[in-house]
Amino acid sequence: MKKVVAISFNVWDNVNSTNTDREINMEKLEPTGVYKKLTFTMLAKGNPDCWKALKQFAQLFGVDWETMARGGENAVVVPLMFNDGTETEIRFYKANTRGDCRYSIPAPVLKAQAEVGDTIAFTFVMKNGQAMLCVNVTKQPEYEYICEVA
Questions:
Q1: Of the four, 53, 70, 94, 113, which is 20 to 30 A from 64 by CA?
Q2: Thinking of the domain 2-6+29-147, which architecture would CATH place it in?
Q3: Tell me: the pLDDT tens digits for 23-73?
Protein backbone atom coordinates (compact mmCIF):
# COMPACT_ATOMS: atom_id res chain seq x y z
CA MET A 1 0.00 0.00 0.00
CA LYS A 2 1.36 3.40 -0.98
CA LYS A 3 1.00 6.05 1.70
CA VAL A 4 1.31 9.72 0.78
CA VAL A 5 3.67 11.47 3.16
CA ALA A 6 3.88 15.06 1.98
CA ILE A 7 2.69 17.09 -0.95
CA SER A 8 3.68 20.71 -1.39
CA PHE A 9 0.93 23.18 -2.28
CA ASN A 10 1.42 26.89 -2.81
CA VAL A 11 -1.50 27.75 -0.56
CA TRP A 12 -1.95 29.11 2.92
CA ASP A 13 -1.90 27.03 6.07
CA ASN A 14 -5.53 26.31 6.90
CA VAL A 15 -4.71 25.03 10.35
CA ASN A 16 -4.93 27.90 12.80
CA SER A 17 -1.59 27.76 14.60
CA THR A 18 -2.81 29.92 17.49
CA ASN A 19 -5.33 27.25 18.50
CA THR A 20 -5.06 23.52 18.93
CA ASP A 21 -3.91 21.46 15.96
CA ARG A 22 -7.46 20.17 15.49
CA GLU A 23 -9.05 23.56 14.81
CA ILE A 24 -9.23 24.51 11.16
CA ASN A 25 -9.60 28.03 9.88
CA MET A 26 -12.75 27.52 7.82
CA GLU A 27 -12.64 31.05 6.42
CA LYS A 28 -9.73 30.22 4.10
CA LEU A 29 -10.88 27.04 2.40
CA GLU A 30 -10.18 26.77 -1.30
CA PRO A 31 -13.18 26.07 -3.57
CA THR A 32 -12.55 22.92 -5.61
CA GLY A 33 -15.84 21.91 -7.21
CA VAL A 34 -15.38 18.40 -5.78
CA TYR A 35 -18.63 17.40 -4.12
CA LYS A 36 -21.23 14.64 -4.13
CA LYS A 37 -24.67 13.94 -2.68
CA LEU A 38 -24.43 10.70 -0.68
CA THR A 39 -26.74 7.83 -1.53
CA PHE A 40 -27.71 4.89 0.65
CA THR A 41 -25.40 2.63 -1.37
CA MET A 42 -22.43 4.98 -0.93
CA LEU A 43 -22.79 4.88 2.85
CA ALA A 44 -23.67 1.18 3.10
CA LYS A 45 -21.09 -0.04 0.59
CA GLY A 46 -18.22 1.95 2.01
CA ASN A 47 -16.19 1.82 -1.19
CA PRO A 48 -18.10 3.66 -3.91
CA ASP A 49 -16.81 4.47 -7.37
CA CYS A 50 -14.80 7.66 -7.73
CA TRP A 51 -16.47 10.33 -9.78
CA LYS A 52 -14.51 12.36 -12.32
CA ALA A 53 -13.85 15.43 -10.13
CA LEU A 54 -12.66 13.35 -7.16
CA LYS A 55 -10.40 11.29 -9.43
CA GLN A 56 -8.79 14.46 -10.73
CA PHE A 57 -8.51 15.95 -7.22
CA ALA A 58 -6.86 12.75 -5.93
CA GLN A 59 -4.08 13.21 -8.47
CA LEU A 60 -2.95 16.26 -6.47
CA PHE A 61 -2.21 13.83 -3.64
CA GLY A 62 -0.08 11.47 -5.71
CA VAL A 63 -2.77 9.12 -7.02
CA ASP A 64 -1.71 7.89 -10.47
CA TRP A 65 -4.73 6.10 -11.88
CA GLU A 66 -2.94 5.22 -15.12
CA THR A 67 -0.17 3.16 -13.55
CA MET A 68 -2.00 1.93 -10.43
CA ALA A 69 -2.29 -1.84 -10.22
CA ARG A 70 -5.66 -3.38 -9.37
CA GLY A 71 -6.51 -4.38 -5.82
CA GLY A 72 -6.92 -2.70 -2.44
CA GLU A 73 -3.39 -3.68 -1.48
CA ASN A 74 -2.17 -1.16 -4.07
CA ALA A 75 -4.20 1.72 -2.64
CA VAL A 76 -2.85 5.20 -2.16
CA VAL A 77 -3.71 6.31 1.36
CA VAL A 78 -4.20 10.02 2.00
CA PRO A 79 -4.80 11.68 5.38
CA LEU A 80 -8.39 12.95 5.64
CA MET A 81 -9.82 15.42 8.10
CA PHE A 82 -13.34 16.58 8.75
CA ASN A 83 -13.94 20.17 9.79
CA ASP A 84 -14.82 19.09 13.34
CA GLY A 85 -11.23 17.86 13.76
CA THR A 86 -11.91 14.15 13.15
CA GLU A 87 -8.85 12.61 11.51
CA THR A 88 -8.93 9.45 9.41
CA GLU A 89 -7.80 8.45 5.93
CA ILE A 90 -9.19 8.10 2.45
CA ARG A 91 -7.96 5.26 0.26
CA PHE A 92 -7.90 5.40 -3.53
CA TYR A 93 -7.62 2.14 -5.45
CA LYS A 94 -8.74 0.15 -8.48
CA ALA A 95 -11.16 -2.73 -8.02
CA ASN A 96 -9.82 -6.21 -8.76
CA THR A 97 -12.51 -7.24 -11.23
CA ARG A 98 -13.03 -4.46 -13.81
CA GLY A 99 -10.45 -1.99 -12.54
CA ASP A 100 -13.06 0.60 -11.54
CA CYS A 101 -11.55 3.56 -9.67
CA ARG A 102 -12.81 3.62 -6.10
CA TYR A 103 -12.36 5.47 -2.85
CA SER A 104 -12.95 4.36 0.70
CA ILE A 105 -13.47 6.28 3.92
CA PRO A 106 -13.92 4.10 7.04
CA ALA A 107 -17.69 3.55 7.27
CA PRO A 108 -18.09 4.35 10.99
CA VAL A 109 -16.29 7.66 10.50
CA LEU A 110 -18.28 8.68 7.42
CA LYS A 111 -21.60 7.61 8.98
CA ALA A 112 -20.82 9.77 12.04
CA GLN A 113 -20.26 12.76 9.72
CA ALA A 114 -23.05 12.39 7.14
CA GLU A 115 -26.38 10.82 6.32
CA VAL A 116 -28.06 9.70 3.12
CA GLY A 117 -28.88 12.78 1.06
CA ASP A 118 -26.15 14.97 2.57
CA THR A 119 -23.70 16.64 0.21
CA ILE A 120 -20.03 16.33 1.09
CA ALA A 121 -17.33 18.50 -0.45
CA PHE A 122 -13.57 17.98 -0.59
CA THR A 123 -10.82 20.56 -0.36
CA PHE A 124 -7.39 20.53 1.27
CA VAL A 125 -5.61 21.74 4.38
CA MET A 126 -1.94 21.97 5.19
CA LYS A 127 -1.29 19.81 8.23
CA ASN A 128 1.89 17.82 8.59
CA GLY A 129 2.50 18.38 4.88
CA GLN A 130 -1.05 18.03 3.56
CA ALA A 131 -4.43 16.43 4.08
CA MET A 132 -7.74 16.28 2.32
CA LEU A 133 -10.60 17.97 4.10
CA CYS A 134 -14.17 16.71 3.85
CA VAL A 135 -17.02 19.08 4.76
CA ASN A 136 -20.70 18.20 5.05
CA VAL A 137 -22.16 21.23 3.28
CA THR A 138 -25.75 20.08 3.89
CA LYS A 139 -25.32 20.38 7.66
CA GLN A 140 -23.09 23.45 7.25
CA PRO A 141 -24.47 25.44 4.31
CA GLU A 142 -22.14 28.35 5.05
CA TYR A 143 -19.41 26.26 3.38
CA GLU A 144 -21.30 25.58 0.13
CA TYR A 145 -18.80 27.81 -1.66
CA ILE A 146 -16.35 24.86 -1.54
CA CYS A 147 -18.55 23.23 -4.19
CA GLU A 148 -17.80 26.02 -6.64
CA VAL A 149 -15.23 25.43 -9.32
CA ALA A 150 -12.06 27.34 -8.46
A1: 113
A2: Beta Barrel (2.40)
A3: 555 556 778 889 999 999 888 877 888 999 999 999 989 999 999 999 999
Q: Other CB atoms closer than 10 Å to residue 130's CB: what's the count?
A: 20
Give per-residue pLDDT as tens, 63-114: 999 999 999 999 999 999 998 889 999 999 999 999 999 999 998 999 999 9
DSSP conformational letter for 57? H
User: How far, in Å, CA of 95 to CA of 80, rounded?
Assistant: 21
Q: 58 near 66, Cβ under 8 Å?
A: no
- For 94, residues 6+ apart whose C-beta sits below 8 A from its C-beta are 65, 68, 69, 70, 71, 74, 100, 101, 102
Share of the chain above pLDDT 70, in %: 78
Burial class (CB in 10 A: 0-12, 13-18, 19+), 132: buried
**Number of Cβ atoms within 10 Å of the Cβ of 119:** 18
